């Protein structure tokens, strides 16, 4: 289902970009500075009490996030570094703590502008994704820091459009491209779905150690990615930001079997008041059969403290 939705989304993006490129034929005279940055740490806390007929249950959820976007320009060459780290845990008075969010993604994207108007760009997207603490997937399989870890490199030909208003209150960046990708899934104690002898083998089962092989799984295929970043100062004390990114890797041919593909999609709008109070909605969906036969879906609406630093 996720893969089908991703295909529809990518088709819509392609049609929209084709029409958009007919209108935008230059970078509107915007020349980015040699170095740009956006650093956004945030922290949120939720506490509540649930009352039943026989008892009261106390709930506490703590969450921390760190996002960074660093960009360095030298002539037609651009080197961009993206970091997105998130960790949240829910504590209930009647059960063990539950990890509700744990994700660490880092990307380094060198690109070369083929023409002065920035319409066509050759880029290499190198991404690493893992988790920071021990979490459980599919009820029985534990994920740890760098186990498993996902590496993704795609060389793609695409389009990048960047714009900033003269008063620096509005900023827009859109990039997309089609290329060829290599994926490496490194694992040690974690068991890939292809190595599992049964979905209900618990930690006390002697077959648990037999199915743990460890190693490096290599895959490749056609990849399409698209990303959008928009920032606007709605008022002196109110800032709006919208981020969206999607990538799909077809591992079995140009279209391939959706069940064997990898899909990732993120939408993240937010409002910041006086640069320290933040209201944020985040939707992330991921599907990769190496990790789980099910898709991973995260939806969250949070209010917390933050600090948005950018030039």
Shape: flat
Beta-strand content bin? over 45%
Secondary structure: helix percent: under 10%
Radius of gyration: 21 Å
Distance between the termini: 40 Å
Estimate the mean pLDDT confidence.
80
Describe the largest sheet: 12 strands, antiparallel, barrel
Oligomer: single chain
Number of helices: 2
Structural class: mainly beta
Count the E strands.
15
Strand order across the largest sheet: 1-2-3-4-5-8-9-10-11-12-13-14
Q: How would you spell out the order of helices and strands?
A: HEEEEEEEEEHEEEEEE
Low-confidence regions? 1-28
Helices, strands, pairings?
Elements: H1 2-23, E1 35-51, E2 56-74, E3 77-92, E4 98-113, E5 121-130, E6 135-137, E7 141-143, E8 149-164, E9 170-187, H2 207-211, E10 215-235, E11 238-250, E12 262-273, E13 277-287, E14 296-306, E15 309-310
Antiparallel strand pairs: 1-2, 1-14, 1-15, 2-3, 3-4, 4-5, 5-8, 6-7, 8-9, 9-10, 10-11, 11-12, 12-13, 13-14
């Amino acid at each position: 289902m996720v893969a089908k939705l991703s295909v529809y989304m990518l088709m819509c993006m392609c049609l929209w970009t084709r029409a958009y490129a007919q209108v935008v034929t230059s970078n509107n005279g915007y020349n980015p500075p040699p170095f740009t940055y956006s650093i956004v740490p945030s922290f949120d806390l939720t506490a509540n009490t649930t009352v039943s007929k026989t008892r009261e249950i106390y709930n506490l959820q703590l969450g921390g996030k760190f996002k960074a976007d660093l960009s360095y320009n030298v002539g037609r060459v651009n080197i961009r570094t993206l970091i997105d780290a998130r960790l949240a845990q829910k504590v209930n008075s009647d059960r063990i703590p539950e990890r509700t969010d744990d994700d660490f993604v880092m990307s380094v994207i060198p690109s070369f502008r083929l023409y002065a108007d920035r319409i066509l760009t050759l880029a290499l997207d190198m991404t690493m994704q893992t988790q920071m603490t021990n979490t459980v997937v599919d009820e029985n399989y534990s994920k740890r820091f760098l186990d498993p870890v996902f590496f993704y490199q795609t060389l793609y030909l695409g389009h990048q459009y960047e714009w900033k208003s003269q008063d620096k209150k509005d900023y827009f960046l859109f990039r997309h491209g089609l290329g060829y990708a290599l994926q490496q899934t490194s694992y040690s104690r974690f068991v890939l779905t292809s190595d599992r002898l049964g979905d209900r083998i618990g930690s006390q089962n002697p077959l648990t150690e037999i199915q743990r092989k460890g190693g490096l799984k290599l895959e490749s295929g056609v990849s399409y990615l698209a990303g959008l970043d928009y920032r606007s100062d709605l008022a002196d004390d109110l800032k709006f930001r919208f981020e969206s990114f999607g990538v799909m890797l077809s591992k079995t041919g140009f279209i391939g079997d959706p069940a064997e593909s990898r899909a990732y999609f993120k939408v993240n709008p937010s409002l910041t008041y006086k640069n320290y109070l933040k209201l944020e909605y985040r939707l992330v969906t991921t599907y990769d059969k190496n990790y789980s036969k099910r898709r991973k879906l995260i939806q969250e609406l949070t209010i917390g403290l933050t600090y948005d630093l950018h030039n």
